[in-house]
Amino acid sequence: ADFLDSVIFYSVLVIFVLAAVPYGTVEPWWKAIFECAMFALALLWIIQGMLSGQWLVRQHRLLIPLIALMVFTVIQTTVPLRSASVSLGPGSGLQPLSFSPYDTQLFVYHLAALIVASGLLLRYTTSRSRLQSLVCVVIGIGLLSTAFGLVRHAFQTQPGFLLPYLQPDSPEVSRGIGFGQFFNHNHFAFLAEMSLGLVLGLMLIRPVRLTRLAWCLVMAIPMWVAVVYSGSRGGLASVTGQVLFVTLLIFVVTSGQELVKEENRQQRVRSFGPFVVTRVVLMASLLIVMVLGVGWVGGDPLAGQLESIPSEFGVKDSDRFSQTNRSSIWPTTWEMIKDHPVAGVGFGGYWIAVTKYHNASGEFTPQQAHNDYLELLASGGLIGVAIGLWFVVGVCKSVLMRLRHPDRLLRALSVGALAGIFAVAIHSVVDFGLHITINTVLFASLLVIATVRSQEADGRWQTAGSQKFDANDS
Asked: Is 259 left (phi over 0), alpha (psi -120 to 50) or beta?
């Protein structure tokens, strides 16, 4: 059981690293390999649970909304509840809710694999060292993707750069060119935001150490430069909001137990003041450097990207259907939502259902809503949104408990994970980066880092005295 315990945890980390390599795992064959690997580890989870007598932990309750979403998605593909009169295909009578049952079934498999991955991390991240390993993997993937993206940006001149389908930057194309190992530059920005959030969290660990601060800056600056070079406008806005979010969250974290233990108000103020001032100055300086770096690093290509924002949102476009951009996609998606408000058009069925509402030439048809919140409402209707809110509420409750943990490292990692989640939440307003497998598994990793709690019942994770970890299993 102990051997399988280690095999399962570190196998998950290895699979996450491999998932980042082939374009972030977007091709069907590689997604299938990822899913099969997760299901194989689920079988090992069952065997290990039979040997050890433990399958679940308290934090697995967070996955109940996701399981409910999977059940609802299965209903979308199997239960005939939609009238054929609104169907885009032939046939009569009632049809499944999903406009593309096959794609919805693929979504079910992928969601099941992600639930298994999250469950494995919650179950087997049982020690401080394993939590640190998970953090290192998330940051390491971000750093390696950043390094590959910067090298590719500097040296690629022909199609193919280790990966055969990667295209070089083109001065004639101001957007849509990939960065790092991704086909889409925005997808790289999602990944960089999540890794950068954890790095910002590490900067907050008390006491501030110059060595640790220097290492964090060595990791953070290349990621920020890569986001600027990628030309992702949503990424720039998200990272800026991320730094502001961390600065505000300092005031929540500093009300932890070490300040409450002070004997009187004067001592609490003395402890609180330098802590907050140091970190606020640190974050403000980092924000100023970031803003100045945009103009210095980005140059004319970034200026062109920013100038295209008005037309992207319809300010300079009188005909909302003349282009396949957000000014046409969002109203189109809203029309679809009004026709299917309760149960949606099926997860994975958006690209089929939207053809009825997108009154363009047909040369380009939207595959996504370029807004994950709108797409959730379109795909799952009010039922899907209710399940999503259920999940968010459960995560928030667990995160608030972790932010009060006496261990300084755990609190700092929670803040960093929350910063990454917050950046993704902002960026998801204008993009669909969580449709990419590697971004989804890293997002799940952040949720685990932010919420995983001690397991006093089986003695796997305990803190005592100066928050030293006792690794002895009972």
From this structure: alpha
CA dihedral angle for residue 77, residue 81, residue 85, residue 91, rounded to 10 degrees? 50
Does the pLDDT value for residue 196 go beyond 90? yes
DSSP-derived 3-state class of residue 12: helix
**Between 7 and 266, whose confidence is greater?**
7
Which pLDDT tens digit goes with each residue over 220-251? 889 988 998 888 888 888 988 888 888 777 66
The tokens describing 433, both together, are 């980066």
Q: How far apart are CA 51 and CA 231, in angstroms?
A: 51
Bridge partners, 469 (sequence order): 463
Cβ(329)–Cβ(79) below 8 Å: no
Contact 267, 259 (CB under 8 A): no
Closest-CA residue to 350 (of 325, 363, 332, 323): 332
Beta bridge partner(s), residue 82: 95
Looking at the DSSP bridge assignments, the partners of residue 95 are 82
∠ CA 438-73-369, rounded to 5°: 60
d(CA 218, CA 233) in angstroms, rounded, equals 23
Residue 318 tokens, joined: 């009188």
Token pair recorded at residue 45: 């989870």
pLDDT bucket at 130, cuts 50 / 70 / 90: very high
Which helix H or strand E contains 82, and what residues bound it? strand 80-83
Cis check: omega of the bond before 164, within 30 degrees of 0:
no
Among 102-111, 342-351, 397-406, 407-416, the range of highest mean pLDDT: 102-111
Query: At 437, which amino acid appears?
Result: T
**Dihedral, CA of residue 214, residue 216, residue 217 and residue 222, to nearest 10:** 140
SS3 at position 142: helix
Backbone angles phi, psi at 95, to 5 degrees: -130, 165
Find the Cα–Cα–Cα–Cα dihedral 422, 250, 398, 466, rounded to 10°. 140
- Measured CA to CA, the distance from residue 454 to residue 461 in angstroms comes to 5
Using CA of residue 15, residue 20, residue 23, residue 28, what is the dihedral sign? positive
Q: What is the pLDDT of residue 11?
A: 97
Residue 118's contacts (CB-CB under 8 Å, 6 or more residues apart) are 62, 63, 66, 444, 447, 448
Q: What is the pLDDT of residues 372-400, one digit of tens each?
A: 999 999 999 999 999 999 999 999 999 88
Q: pLDDT digit string (tens) for 44-72?
A: 999 999 999 888 888 899 999 999 999 99
Based on its alpha-carbon atoms, the radius of gyration of the chain, rounded to whole angstroms, reads 23
